[in-house]
Amino acid sequence: MTWALDLDGVLWRGDTAIPGSAGAVAALRGRGERVVFLTNNSHERVDAYVAKLERVGVSASPDDVVTSGQAAAQLLERGTTALVCGGPGVVEALGTAGVKVVEEGPADAVVVGWHSTFDYDRLTIATCAVLDGARLVGTNDDATYPTADGLIPGGGAILAAIAYASGATPEVAGKPNQAMVDLVAGRVGPVEVMVGDRPDTDGMLARNMGARFGLVLSGVTNGSDLPVEPEPDLVAKDLAALVAEWARSRG
After folding, report:
1. What is the pLDDT of residues 69-125, one digit of tens each?
2. Are strands 109-112 and 81-85 parallel, antiparallel or unpaired?
């Protein structure tokens, strides 16, 4: 059985590990389950996610990590050009897919992901490229991003600014969209359980993959938001509690 875990809000909030999450991953692996990690946060390179997992006590290889940046890269043809309005993880994913990254237009696509250095100049450059004919591709459209200090604007907020200024309708690659479904199917194979903190992304991805949805209340969603759609197959305060409940149900 393969479990797919979101990262932000499930394993950590910002740079702070969520207590018990590393032990929960170890418990799953101890029962013979495969664990992979699916994130809509495209900012970091894959090796940075692997290193961060190691820092919170979870061993992983690059093959265990699937990002929305990788999903976005799969939407573009090898040899085309992309203007990046995102972090180094998007640049890495595009390069791996054979897409040439440019600093400003013209370009075949503008690829947008969460990054903390977004400013008016970058908004202008990205908007002008889209107005000149570039496809607008978002790694994700998450409105917010959970940190140890609370929610901050997510990649979707940046994407919305460019979409509004350009009048373009973006193509969104990350959870729960088909580009991510296809990437996971090709990279990981069937997933039986998807665990996340967002019903609209993690929950819908679970449904689109034919997986069960485990909702944790340690990120964006909290108890006062319940009930949610899609309805989770299991709800718990965090990953440790969810895995413990699942283990009890299996005996």
Report:
1. 999 999 999 999 999 999 999 999 999 999 999 998 899 999 999 999 999 999 999
2. parallel
Positions marked catalytic = 6, 8
> What six digits make up the tokens of 154?
């997510």
Residue with tokens 């029962």: 31
Q: How far apart are the first and last CA of the chain?
A: 16
Helix (H) or strand (E) holding 37: strand 34-39
Same domain, 191 and 245: yes
Could you give the C-alpha distances from 126 to 27, 31, 95, 176, in angstroms and in order?
45, 47, 19, 24
pLDDT tens for residues 147-198? 888 889 999 999 999 999 999 999 999 999 999 999 999 999 999 999 999 9
Among the residues of the chain, which ranges form H helices?
21-30, 46-55, 68-73, 88-96, 120-131, 155-166, 178-187, 204-209, 239-250
Q: pLDDT digits over 31-45, tens only?
A: 999 999 999 999 999
CATH number at residue 94: 3.40.50.1000
Instruction: Residue 13: give the domain boundaries.
Output: 2-68+187-250
Q: What is the CA radius of gyration of the chain?
A: 18
